[in-house]
Write a structure and sequence with these properties.
Elements (H helix, E strand, L loop, with lengths): L4 E4 L2 E4 L1 H34 L4 E4 L4 E6 L3 E6 L1 H6 L9 E4 L3 E6 L2
Antiparallel strand pairs: 1-2, 3-4, 4-7, 5-6
């Protein structure tokens, strides 16, 4: 039996090989996430500069949508409503939005 966890002195112990691999994977995930976020930021900036709203590639299934920041976008702030004026909605509106990019790959 190839147990990943063994019990010694009533204490669970994960195999060192597994622990090391998990640490390696965690590092890889962090690096890949940083790279992914970098490309996503670059695409967002480029699409913003060139006024591109959507890019689609039927062959790869890649779809990239740019949603620009919206001025005077109402956002409901439940915390402020609850904390300051439980019965007054109008004083709890944030008038701003953020830009974002969504990347989807369908296979």
């Amino acid at each position: 039996m190839n147990d990943l966890i063994k019990i010694e002195n009533n204490k669970p112990i994960v195999k060192e090989k597994i622990i090391n691999r998990l640490i390696e994977l965690e590092t890889d995930i962090k690096q890949l996430t940083e790279l992914y976020d970098k490309y996503k930021r670059q695409l967002l900036e480029e699409m913003e500069k060139k006024n591109i709203v959507k890019i689609s590639d039927e062959t790869t299934g890649l779809s990239i949508s740019y949603i620009p920041a919206q001025e005077n976008l109402e956002r409901f702030n439940k915390a402020r409503l609850r904390d300051l004026y439980p019965d007054i909605y109008d004083e709890c509106i944030d008038m701003n939005g953020k830009k974002s990019a969504y990347i989807t790959i369908r296979r």
